[in-house]
Design brief:
3% of the residues are buried. Helix content is 15%, strand content 30%. The chain has 60 residues and is α+β, with helices and mostly antiparallel strands. The strands form two sheets. The protein has a three-stranded antiparallel β-sheet. The protein has a two-stranded antiparallel ribbon with strand order 1-5.
């Protein structure tokens, strides 16, 4: 069985929320982890190409 790993572009504001526990990430989906919006989607992360060809969503 093959193992597939994807890399995602994570904007700074989302990275801060993940680091502080405000958000949680499951796959490419970032959701609120706490508060009245718990479970609601914050952002769908964009995959990037680590081989250097093209990144989808980099800088967006």
């Amino acid at each position: 069985m093959a193992i597939a790993q994807d890399a995602f572009y994570i904007p700074d504001d989302i990275a801060t929320g993940l680091a502080t526990g405000l958000y949680r990430r499951i796959g490419s989906v970032v959701r609120y982890a706490v508060g009245p919006n718990q479970g609601q989607i914050v952002k769908h992360l964009n995959p990037i190409d680590l081989n250097g060809r093209t990144g989808t969503g980099c800088g967006s």
